[in-house]
Amino acid sequence: MEYEAVIGLEVHAELSTKSKIFCSCTTEFGGQPNTHCCPVCLGMPGTLPVLNRKAVEYTIKAGLATNCTISYFTKQDRKNYFYPDLPKGYQISQYDLPLCKNGYIEIETENGKKKIRINRIHLEEDAGKLVHSEYGYYSYVDYNRTGVPLIEIVSEPDISSAAEAKAYLEKLKAILQFIGVSDCKMEEGSLRADVNISIRPKGSKELGERTEMKNLNSFRAVYRAIEAEIARQIEVVKSGGTIERETRRWDDARGESYPMRSKEDAQDYRYFPEPDLPPLIIKEELVERLKKELPELPDARKQRYMMEYGLPEYDAGVLTSSKELSDFFEEAAKVSNNIKAISNWVMGDMLRILNERNLEVSQIPFPPAYLAKLVALLDKGVINGPTAKKVFEDMFDSGKDPEVIVKEQGLEVLNDESILLQVVEKVIEENPNSVADYKKGKKKAIGFLVGQAMKATKGKANPQLLNELLIKKLEE
Ligand SMILES: [Zn+2]
Asked: What is the dihedral of CA 20, 23, 29, 32, to 10 degrees?
């Protein structure tokens, strides 16, 4: 029997507000442990939370950018559970009246575009972080992250494969970055995903029992965890077993998951309305204003690149996969008259170098206009292709203007006939055998001679001119 997977994602994104959700502590990442917290975010008795207006606005923006309906009446609830990184013993979240619901985003799949529905987006506070000692004797708690505003974006189980889950996450990340509500730095934990997975016989409408994998913090981990879990579930069912509803932990180093807790001790969170915060009435004017503030979203920008610049859909998709990349491309394109070349450099050499050097787009040491200059130098024939690649690498080392690099290192294409003629004469003199071969009719011998001459000019000769001069000299 063939099986298909049914996958739903719960994505947590930390909002990039300056202060925390209920107090004025900084949300800055890092810092000495327990230096970014106060009695309010630690939930000390006698303190009262005050809701951060920006956090609400950011959540509404995320909802608008993902085609959600915004709730005009909403409230916050206490989700009760005890955990050492949550000192209050409850988390302030949203239960039955989330700020945003019933949205969707569109992804590209092998079989074309697909809509992934979003069930809800709600606002809540983040918890602290446990740091376990190496030998397991004790644990530390760092409350710096406690109270950082967080949105949870819950998808419907519309995802059918690891590739679709990755595409969904990438699109979601791009949208949140474009609208500026989260930096989505997975390595700093500001974007994390929980994955719900079940399988069922292909074509069946019924849902199978699902398992959940929590806190996956890289696209790679999400992809691998889903692949492994689908395979595990099929294996269990095929060998006559049944899938238990449980939470599993993914071990990325070992490439496998193991059970963490089962249905028996599943938590009963005992939600109830947060008594310290009044219900929230969202005014229509606010939603209208936020709608107007929304920038161009990735899909719209992709369409524009195809229309305005005539770029292929694939190129436009890669370029708009991240805001930083897209902005860099656009800045360079603005001052260039060879936009396809800019696109090729960004998608090709630039992404390769960033990857090799483990750099973010924001760490590129030169402005986008320098890429446009490099393309112009190449187009005008001042430098040739291999030299351009070398200059581009140099720009990542020094941050220098490509024109300066070319001047300093004397990399201009050698077009001077008198110099090239001297080189040609010298090569002919030093390679009598090849010259004899050529004169006997072995026309291929010219390749070797051109190679020698190029070498003598350190690759800078204009190859066409060199070829012409060499033939002329040999036929004399
Ligand atoms: Zn605080």
From this structure: -160
Measured CA to CA, the distance from residue 162 to residue 219 in angstroms comes to: 10
Distance 15 CA to ligand 1 centre (A): 16
| Gap from CA of 143 to ligand 1 centroid (Å) | 9
pLDDT tens column, 57-90: 999 999 999 999 999 999 999 999 888 888 888 9
Structure tokens at 292: 């107007």
**CB distance 37 to 24 below 8 Å:** no
Asked if 71 and 98 touch (Cβ cutoff 8 Å), the reply is yes
Determine the distance separating the centroid of ligand 1 and the alpha carbon of 39, expressed in angstroms: 6
Give the distance (Å) from ligand 1 centre to CA of residue 38. 4
Ligand 1 center to 144 CA (angstroms): 9
The SS3 call for residue 353 is: helix
Separation of 147 CA from ligand 1 center, angstroms? 7
Distance from Cα 172 to the centre of ligand 1, integer Å = 29
Strand order of the β-sheet with 272-273 is 90-93, 77-80, 272-273
Place of tokens 């000192």: 87
CB 409 within 8 A of CB 457: no
For ligand 1, the distance from its centroid to the CA atom of residue 124, given in whole angstroms, is 15
Helix, strand, coil content of the chain in percent (nearest 5): 40, 20, 35
CB-CB contact of 71 with 123 (8 Å):
no
Q: What is the pLDDT of residue 267?
A: 65
Kind and range of the H or E element at 431? none
- CB 348: neighbour CB atoms within 10 A? 12
Measured CA to CA, the distance from residue 299 to residue 317 in angstroms comes to: 8
Give the burial class of 141: count Cβ atoms within 10 A of its Cβ; 0-12 exposed, 13-18 middle, 19 or more buried.
middle
245 CA → ligand 1 middle, Å: 37
Q: Which residues pair with 438 in a beta bridge?
A: none
Whole-number CA gyration radius for the chain: 30
pLDDT digits (tens, 9 = 90+) for 258-290: 988 765 555 678 899 999 999 999 999 999 999
